[in-house]
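Q: I have 115 residues here and want to know how they pack in 3D. Can you give me a structure?
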Amino acid sequence: MTTKKIIDALTDVAKRMDMEVRIEKGDFRGGRCHVGGQTVIMLNKRHPAEVQLAVLARSLRNEPLDTVYLKPAVRKALHRLWDEADTDGSADADTPEGASTDESTSSESPRAHAS
């Protein structure tokens, strides 16, 4: 399964879990944030698909994914990415580097919170 297809599948899962996935250009790493009470996962359009996939996987890590159907190849890719993050010492994979664990719920631009 291609990286793009896995991204598409995980984007669909995020939407089914009432999260918005936005792919935009900008000077940010990407990640999960809250905008006006809505959970948003920001992906940087300038990043390669592999980086976008890693951000998406990290953002979905603590979600109850056992409650939704995932193709076996997608689930395997997720677990591989999570294992790689654990090996790299990124145990708190839902928190972008340099960010606090207290996520804002303001209606500001998601770029302010996702970078």
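Q: Anything worth noting?
A: The first strand starts at residue 19 and ends at 24. The chain is about 40% helix and 15% strand.
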